[in-house]
Request: fold
Amino acid sequence: MPTLTRAEAAERASLVDVETYHVDLDVTADGDTFRSRAVVRFRARPGAATFLEFEPVEASSISLNGAPVDPSAIRDGRLHLDGLAGSNELVVDALMRYSIDGEGLHRYIDPADGNVYLYQHLFINNGGRVLPCFDQPDLKASWQVSVTAPAEWTVATNGVLVSRDGGRWEFAPTKRISTYLASLIAGKYHVRTDEHDGIPLALYARAALAEHLDAEAAEIFEITKQCLDRFHEMFEIRYPFGHYQQAFAPEFNFGAMEYPGLVVFRDEMIPRSVVTESEREHRANVIAHEMAHQWFGDLVTMAWWDDLWLNESFAEYLGTRVASEATRYSGTWTTFAMHRKAWGLRADQRPSTHPVAPDEVTDTDAALLNFDGISYAKGAAVLKQLVAWLGDEAFLAGLNAHFAAHAYGNATLADLLGSLSKASGRDLSGWADVWLRRAQVNTLRAEVRRDGANYAEVAVVQTAPAGFSTLRPHRVGIGLFDQVAGGAVVRRRLIEVELEASGRTVIAELAGEPAADLLLLNDGDLTYAKIRLDEESAAAVPLLLPLLDDSLARAVIWAAVLDAVVDGERPVAELVTLVLAALPTETEVVIIEDVLRATRGLVDRYATGQTRPAALELLAQAADRLLRVSPAGGSNQLAAARGLIGATTEAALLRGWLNGENVPEGLVVDADLRWLIQYRLAVLGAADAAAIDAELAADRSASGEQWAARCRAALPDAAAKEAAWTAVVADGSLSNRLAELTAAGFWQPEQLDVLSGYAERYFAEMPEMVRIRKGMSAEKTAMAAYPDVAVSERTRELAAALLARADLNPILRRVVQDADDDMRRALAARG
Ligand SMILES: [Zn+2]
Reply:
């Protein structure tokens, strides 16, 4: 399928106005194809020529306004039409192919019971893999769907069910929606229903997950209702799409997708094993995020992908906010500060960085690459800063005016800024220019001068990275923390100040103030910047961090510490020492998980071959200490156990846990924890293929199949590596998720000897991989297969040679550019 350019989309929108799609699918046949009959009604400029995205295996009939169209009109994934009338009816009957890459109509066979499951994902422009359509966000239309399916299946779509007769399903037409939002699931889905405030609710998951969906349904419904109520308090337009259904589908590429009336999540969100509170919080956040999209994205849609941020930044901001305000997960801003912002900061400092709102995204390939930490996390952080600056009342008034003006239509950045400016009475053009139109991040550094026990001067120094000159206005919190009797570290004072877009701002109100034990810049995490503490405060961190009572403040400090290590300003050995001192007393599970995960990644890439084992041992000790003090059966215990499993080299300890020996009280070694242990044993060379086969024989499930693929790829022997590599780069019959997880298990810092030669193969063979895998599946697999632990100048030279190729696939180019930049940092930090 050719990528759709912005210019083509603009021209087509000037010629065509789509009224309705009626798509009638027959999914009863076995094999890898299905029938699609479509009727597309649209108005056009008389005499004009245009095209629809369309990629059939075979079109048995095509007619336009009653006259047959020759199948040769289908070329390169497009159906070309000319001689259009003012009012047109296109009727097509075609054989289409199912996908296994998560785009189009994805078909999955559950290894647990052999049941077949389908879900439709047309984003970003895969509509032509299901029916002929004008696949761009500003050509909205009403969708009507009919499906013929095996009699025992369940089918759901955006629209409400009108009738069902055996395997024949008829759904009501939707309101006007964009093509990328048309949704469908079909299969032996297990269903739960409920109702709230006049809105019918439903949940769907595979039959094999039925008992787990039943166990989770109460919580998911509760969060759904709480979030609906909160959005209805904030927004003047009620939820606009009738019913609110949420499906959990296998091998879904995204965390979830915001289809109006039928949101689809990856079905890992229906856990079969014990999970931590942060994983539950994440699901609540995603529920709120997708619900925010019903207004921001579905009701009012960006005109073109330039304004992707209008969708994702708003959904990330509102999802985090609404989950924290309306559900029991009040700590989502701590997670945001700790985890999501680091994602944005990293993306923003790479060579591929781009503004939150780019001037122009040339085509759909480029648009796909902007689904990154900038469009989500940086955009949301910038919106949080905007709310701090405008005030909440003006912000919400502006949003409501925006919805009212553009409901069921499309809008641009200029439209939104107009609504917000009008509501707040403030001119936002300067703000938008520095925060939305310019890439990169500023560093804010605290500087203090003392006069005895008091501050003589506190200043904040703002800098821009090399090659960039932009400085920004910031509204930031500054917290003063002291250690009090009994040892706790508590906030004595919090002030909010406005920093001009200048190099140095003196904080006048802190002159003469008694100096604090720790001065925290960006306390409350209001702004988006790299944060560096003053020297005295930084030196006090190892002593005071474990005693600090405010989890958001701890998250801001941890994020700053980790960022300094990523930049090579602080050695990874110092980080590991801090983790050993501070982690065992940490109580916030998201901080535990993130510190363990981020430190582990830095140890693997920043520590040299000689120092890595010692660093890993200290990390294992930190996890072990935390495990010993964590309450039995709680989330912290599980997070500590996972951290220990990932870092330890003691195979006997791990085997013991598998056999039920010396398992900490309260820790459940269930199916997924067993697999995590098997995975570590495989990496260490302490489990073989037979052990993996035996584990799989005891767990014939979707998760078991995925874990087994990852474990096999992690075995440190030449035959296993060859088999895994060949599967990733050349086996087109491997699904998106199995390809990604096989790649994820492949590279291990413990195994550089047996992996010799595979860095060369990555750069030689990935161009072929991105020919057999497409879109997001190609991107994720290329990322996971990157030789990121083969840290060497040689790997960088190979990357440079590939990047020099003019014919390089743009998805692979972005992946290699970014991963190579990470390696540049790692090499610099190693010194
Ligand atoms: Zn989203």
Remarks:
- The radius of gyration is 27 Å.
- The mean pLDDT is 97.
- The first strand starts at residue 16 and ends at 26.
